[in-house]
Amino acid sequence: MLSKGCFDWMKEWKTCPSSIIPGIHELYQQLLPTKLYHHNKTGTNPSSDVLCRMCGSGPENVPHILAGCSTLAKTKYIARHNAALKVLFFELLKDRNLITEIPPWNITRVQFSPLING
Known about the structure:
Helix content: 40-55%
Low-confidence stretches: none
Order of helices and strands: HHHHH
Mean pLDDT: 80
Shape: flat
Radius of gyration: 18 Å
Number of strands: 0
Number of domains: 2
Number of helices: 5
């Protein structure tokens, strides 16, 4: 059951692709087809092996995939962080009147590189 107002923030996301909305609901309800989901909810994983297929060190569930997998931490978490940073970056530019409109999130081709002080 969804909490009342849980997805109110999506009203502001006018350019949200329709394919994203069901994915967000599945994440919220932890309905993604992970090993732990198949083992506990559907019973289609008769094996007792519920360890992550990528790192093998934690149970393959939504929280582990989103924030706990050491294999994903090396690549996907960094890409996700940078994608979120782009959104904040352009919002700040617009707030400071340095740009007039925010480019659509899916076509923004800005690459951030680390600042190295030496």
